[in-house]
Structures are given as C-alpha cells and as structure tokens.
Amino acid sequence: QVQLEESGGGLVQAGGSLRLSCAASGRTFSSHAMGWFRQAPGEEREFVAAISWSGDSIDYADSVKGRFTISRDNAKNTVYLQMNSLKPEDTAVYYCAAREGSLAYRMYWYKYWGQGTQVTVAS
Question: Which helix (H) or strand (E) holds 99?
Fold first, then answer.
C-alpha cells in the first residue's frame, strides 16, 4: 500500500517557477514508478511526467519538455516536479501517482493517487 500527498502548489505569474513535492508512505516506494498528471477545469486528466523506480528512465509530455523536470529521492520517499517558465495553460490541479513496475504515461496504469495540489499561473 502506498499513500501519496502532494504539496507546493500555488499562484505564480507567467514565466515563474514552482516545485511540487509528493511524499509517499510505505516501505515499497522505491519499487514504484511515479508519475505526475494534471487536470484543468472541464478537461480530462493528462500525463505530465513519469520516472522509473531507479530514476534512470524519465518521460515527459511534449507540452512540458524543456520546462519541467521530474526527480525522486528514494531515501526521502519523495518525488518532485520542478516547473519553470510556467504558462497560463499550465493552470490545473496536479496529481502524483504510483505504480509497481516500469514508468507509464496512461493514468489507468497507476494504482495509487494523491489528492492533488492546485497550480494557478496568472498572465
């Protein structure tokens, strides 16, 4: 069992930065691939980034490549999403998710989800 809690969301001006954190409970965190997803009002939840259990494999949505960086610290049971050069279209609730096995970009492959943290980018 893995429980996830996101933090670090907030209001930022376009061009600014935020770092999201996702703290995981459970002794098996290091064996889980982790993903970040986001959902804007009226939109479907979409893939943002994912990282393998070891951190060796990483994938990003095209919309965030070059601006967002996913990382993890297995000693702290935490995964991060560094978001730079934020745009108003990045406004959404951001969720972290965990799954056993390799990284994935489809939300239904993830078993565990956090409650989400709001990110609002003002123009």
Answer: strand 92-100
